[in-house]
Structures are given as C-alpha cells and as structure tokens.
Amino acid sequence: VTCKHESRTSIMLRNLPNDYTLTMLLALLDAEGFSGRYDFAYLPVDFTRWAGFGYAFVNMVSHVDAQAAWRHFQGFNNWQVSSQKTCEVCWGDPLQGLAAHVERYRNSPVMHESVPDGCKPAMFNEGRRIAFPPPTKRIRAPRAKQPGHGRAAAEWTHDATANCLQQA
Asked: Residue limits of the Mei2-like C-terminal RNA recognition motif domain (predicted)?
C-alpha cells in the first residue's frame, strides 16, 4: 500500500459477513496476527435486524500496522461463518487515529447505557479491552432505523439483547 499520508492508522473493512459480530471481528484480528496491534474497533449494528451492516472500523497502533492489516485483509474471505463475501479495505475517512474515534463516539447514542457492550465501539491497550472515556454530555438513546417507527434503545427485547451479549 503506497500512501502519501504516512500517519494514517485507521482502516475500514468492507464486505464483512452481515452476521459478523464485534467479538468475531476481534477474534479474527487476533487469530490473523494482529493481537495488540489495534487500539480501537467498531462494527456498527443495525438494531432493527440485530445484524452488522457489513463493515467495521479498526484503528491500528501504527501506520506500519495499518498497512500490514490492509495487505492482509484486502481480498480476505476465510470467515468464521459461511459467506461468499470478499473483504475490501480502505482508509478510514474522515476519522483517522484513536483520538478522532474517541471524540466521534464518546457522546454518540451507540454509547448509551442501554446498548449492550458487544454492540459498542471498543478501545484496547496492548490487546486488552479498556474502558471508553466517559461522555462529556448527556447521551440520548439510539433509535432503531425503521421507516415510520422510531423505537428507543431502552425498548430492547430480551432476545435481541441476549443476541448482542452472547457475542460480546
């Protein structure tokens, strides 16, 4: 990967299987040799279907690690679930770096207390999950994206919450 911006550390993994979870993504990163080489990961979840949108953001600890992850996962298709999808990698845009991701998500509805941990952005230090910095303002509950029906995150069903938690 040639890049004129040698400080980029954030990549976007696209074409992930929709039933991939954050836990599965983290296990994949670790199994493929990237344990301890990332400090942020987020796999957005559609709260109406309780499935991923098919992409994730990962911040690597260095530009060299980001390039290595890019090379490794571009064209990757050895998923833990049955899928014909082939991963595509691009630079995270507009967010680059851990600080930018923290700033973007710390006050986001996805960090609301009603959202299960397995569905939230996660931070890491030397391979261990660490607490996300606290919000700087009141966080509103996320809304499910259902046309014509806004359902508050506080209305999680037991089954949906259990699905997300079992993947955490």
From this structure: 8-105
Give how far the C-alpha of residue 90 lies from the chain's centroid of Cα atoms, to the nearest Å.
14
- The amino acid that residue 121 corresponds to is P
Q: What is the DSSP string of 46-98?
A: ETTTTEE-SEEEEEESSHHHHHHHHHHHTT----SS------EEEE-SS--SH
63/142 Cα distance (integer angstroms): 33
| pTM exceeding 0.90 | no
CATH assignment at residue 40: 3.30.70.330
Q: What is the arithmetic mean of pLDDT over 45-72?
A: 93
Count structural domains, the chain. Answer: 1
Q: What are phi and psi of 44, to 5 degrees?
A: -60, 140
Please indicate, yes or no, if residue 32 is contained in any of the structural domains: yes
Which pair of tokens denotes residue 160?
């949906």
Residue 127 domain-assigned (yes or no): yes
106-122, pLDDT tens digit by residue? Answer: 999 999 999 999 899 99
Place of tokens 């919000």: 135
